[in-house]
C-alpha cells in the first residue's frame, strides 16, 4: 500500500511516524550496532533504539485499538492521547543510553503538544516548538552532556527547524537535513569517533527517526544516508570507501586502541550497565541523580509525573539498585556486564536444566496452524489478527524452546526487523540463532517439512531457507479501508488477492479472487499447492480450488489445512 502524506501533526500522523520509524530503524539496526563505539563499544545501540520505538509504537496502537473497539461514533484518539501514549511507551520500553535519550526526546515533544489541550492537530510552528523543547529536555536529562553525540544531532535538528516558516513537511525536512549535517560532523567533535572513523551511532538512529518524520508528511522517504566509515588504511572517515560501516565491527575498528570508554567497559570504564523503571517523587529523584553521578558515568534519568527511567554505567551494580530503592520503587531492573551478557537479579542461581540441541520457533497466524506446527515439533507464538508480536514475545518463545540452536521463522514480512532484534537478544544470552526470513506461514510449512535436527546446523538452515525461498505465497483477504494498491484503488469490503506481498487482484467474490490468484501462481509452474483456510472463508472455497487444480494442472498435488482465526481468509503456497 502507498504511504498517504499527512498534512498536519495529528493522532494519525503520530501513528504513521511510529510505524515508519520502527521500519527505518529495523533496516538500519545492524549498521547502527556496527558503528557503536561510544560510550561503550558493545554493539547494541541500533537494537536498543529499535526496541524503544517498538514499545512506543505498541502503546500508540493500543490507544487506536481502544477507540476502534469503543462506543460507536468515536472520532478516534486525540493528538494528546497519541503523543502521550508514544512518550509513555518509549519511557517504559527504553533500552540503553541512546534509547533512554530518545525516550526523553519523545517525552519533551509530547509535553509541548499536550500543553495545547485537546486540539485535533498542530501545524508547522507547533512542530518547531516541540522539536526545540525535545532537544532541550533530552540535554537536561543527561548528567554530563557530551558534544558529538545524539544530543548534538537533536539540537542541530531543532536549530534548523527554527529557521523555517512553513508547514509540517517543511519543518520536518529542515530538521532532518540539520540533523544529517550535524551527524556528519560528529567525528570532529568526539575523538573516539574520529579514531574509529565513524559517526555517532545514537545520532545515526535519530536521523533515521527524523527521516521517518519527513516521510510521514511527504509520502516519500529521503535518500538513504551515506555513513562515514574508516578507510582501509585506518586514517579518518571516508564517504566513498569500498566497505560500509555495517561491514566492519566495532571491535575491528577499535583494535589496538586504548580509548577511555571503549572496549568491554571492564578495562577502561565501569563494568555494568544498570537500567530500571522507578516510581518516585521529584525530590527523591534529584537526590538519586547526585548519588548515581558519584557512583558512575553515562547517567541519564528521564521521565516525570512519578515514573522515571534510570540508566547508568557503574562498577557497583548493587549500589546503583540500592540507591533506587532508597528513592522509591524500582522495577524491571536490568543489569548487563559489558561483554558478558545479562546478570539477572532474581536471587540464588539454580542449576539450569540441560538445553536441547536444536529447536524451531515459528510465529503462526491461527490456532489451526499452531497445532500443525506443534505436531511437527516447533515452538509456536500465536500472532493475533492485527496484533503482531513484539520482539520481547519472540525472545520469550526462544527461551521456552530451551535449545542451544534455534531456527526462527517469522512467517510475516512485517516481522522481519522485529525477529532480527529478537535474534540479537537471544544471541546475547548464548543461543545460536538463525533467522530465515519467511514472509508467510506457507513458506514456514515448506521450511519445516525439510527440517532435520540431526544435520549440521548450517546445513539444516540452508535446506530450510531453500525450501522457503522456492515457495511462492499468496493470501486472500478483505480490505478494511479505501487504499491505493498496485492493482488500483480498492474500497472497504473489497476482496483482495495478494501474491508475494503485492495486491494482484481486486474483486467481490472470495472464490473467484482465489481462483484467479491460484491460476496466476501456477502459470509459472509448480508441484504442490498448500491451502490454509481461515474461519471467515466460504465453506466451499477449498473444494473448488482443489477441483480446479485436478482439472487444469496435471501432476500438481494439493494439501489443505484449517487455519482457524488467522486474519486472512485464505493462505496459498505453491512449491
UniProtKB/TrEMBL annotation:
Q: Where is the DhaL domain?
A: 12-215
- Enumerate the SMART domains for this protein: Dak1_2, Dak2
Q: What protein am I looking at?
A: DAK2 domain-containing protein
Q: Which organism is it from?
A: Streptomyces lienomycini
Amino acid at each position: 500500500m502507498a504511504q498517504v502524506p499527512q498534512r498536519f501533526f495529528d493522532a494519525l500522523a503520530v501513528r504513521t511516524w511510529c510505524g515508519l520509524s520502527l521500519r527505518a530503524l529495523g533496516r538500519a539496526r545492524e549498521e547502527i550496532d556496527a558503528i557503536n563505539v561510544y560510550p561503550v563499544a558493545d554493539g547494541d545501540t541500533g537494537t536498543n533504539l529499535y526496541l524503544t520505538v517498538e514499545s512506543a509504537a505498541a502503546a500508540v496502537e493500543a490507544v487506536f485499538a481502544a477507540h476502534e473497539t469503543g462506543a460507536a461514533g468515536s472520532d478516534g484518539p486525540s493528538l494528546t492521547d497519541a503523543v502521550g501514549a508514544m512518550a509513555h511507551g518509549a519511557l517504559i520500553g527504553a533500552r540503553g543510553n541512546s534509547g533512554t535519550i530518545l525516550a526523553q526526546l519523545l517525552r519533551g515533544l509530547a509535553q509541548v503538544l499536550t500543553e495545547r489541550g485537546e486540539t485535533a492537530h498542530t501545524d508547522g510552528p507547533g512542530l518547531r516548538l516541540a522539536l526545540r523543547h525535545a532537544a532541550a529536555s533530552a540535554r537536561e536529562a543527561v548528567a554530563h552532556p557530551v558534544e558529538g553525540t545524539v544530543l548534538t544531532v537533536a539540537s542541530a535538528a531543532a536549530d534548523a527547524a527554527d529557521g523555517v516558516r512553513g508547514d509540517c513537511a517543511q519543518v520536518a525536512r529542515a530538521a532532518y537535513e540539520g540533523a544529517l549535517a550535524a551527524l556528519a560532523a560528529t567525528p570532529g567533535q568526539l575523538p573516539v569517533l574520529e579514531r574509529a572513523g565513524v559517526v555517532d551511532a545514537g545520532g545515526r538512529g535519530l536521523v533515521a527517526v527524523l527521516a521517518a518524520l519527513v516521510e510521514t508528511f511527504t509520502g516519500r522517504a529521503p535518500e538513504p544516508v551515506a555513513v562515514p566509515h574508516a578507510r582501509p588504511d585506518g586514517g579518518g572517515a571516508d564517504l566513498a570507501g569500498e566497505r560500509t560501516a555495517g561491514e566492519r565491527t566495532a571491535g575491528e575498528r577499535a583494535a589496538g586502541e586504548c580509548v577511555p570508554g571503549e572496549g568491554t567497559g571492564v578495562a577502561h570504564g565501569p563494568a555494568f550497565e544498570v537500567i530500571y523503571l522507578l516510581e518516585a517523587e521529584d525530590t527523591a529523584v534529584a537526590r538519586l541523580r547526585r548519588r548515581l553521578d558519584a557512583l558512575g558515568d553515562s547517567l541519564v534519568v528521564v521521565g516525570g509525573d512519578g515514573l522515571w527511567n534510570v540508566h547508568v554505567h557503574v562498577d557497583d551494580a548493587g549500589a546503583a539498585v540500592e540507591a533506587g530503592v532508597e528513592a522509591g520503587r524500582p522495577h524491571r531492573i536490568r543489569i548487563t556486564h559489558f561483554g558478558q551478557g545479562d546478570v539477572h537479579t532474581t536471587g540464588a542461581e539454580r542449576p539450569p536444566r540441560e538445553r536441547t540441541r536444536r529447536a524451531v520457533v515459528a510465529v503462526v497466524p491461527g490456532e489451526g496452524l499452531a497445532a500443525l506446527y506443534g505436531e511437527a515439533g516447533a515452538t509456536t507464538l500465536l500472532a493475533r489478527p492485527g496484533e503482531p508480536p513484539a520482539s520481547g514475545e519472540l525472545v520469550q518463545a526462544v527461551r521456552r524452546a530451551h535449545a542451544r540452536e534455534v531456527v526462527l521463522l517469522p512467517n510475516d514480512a512485517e516481522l522481519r526487523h522485529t525477529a532480527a532484534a529478537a535474534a540479537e537478544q537471544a544471541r546475547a544470552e548464548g543461543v545460536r540463532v538463525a533467522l530465515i526470513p519467511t514472509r508467510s506461514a506457507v513458506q514456514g510449512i515448506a521450511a519445516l517439512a525439510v527440517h532435520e535436527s540431526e544435520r549440521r546446523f548450517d546445513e539444516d538452515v540452508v535446506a530450510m531457507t531453500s525450501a522457503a525461498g522456492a515457495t511462492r505465497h499468496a493470501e486472500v483477504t478483505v480490505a478494511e479501508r479505501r487504499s491505493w494498491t498496485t492493482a488500483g484503488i480498492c474500497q472497504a469490503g473489497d476482496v483482495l488477492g495478494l501474491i508475494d506481498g503485492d495486491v494482484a487482484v481486486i474483486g467481490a467474490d472470495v472464490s473467484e479472487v482465489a481462483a484467479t490468484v491460484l491460476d496466476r501462481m501456477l502459470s509459472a509452474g509448480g508441484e504442490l499447492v498448500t491451502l490454509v483456510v481461515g474461519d471467515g472463508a466460504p465453506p466451499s472455497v477449498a473444494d473448488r480450488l482443489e477441483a480446479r487444480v485436478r482439472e487444469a494442472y496435471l501432476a500438481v498435488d494439493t494439501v489443505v489445512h484449517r487455519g482457524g482465526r488467522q486474519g486472512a481468509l485464505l493462505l496459498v503456497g505453491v512449491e
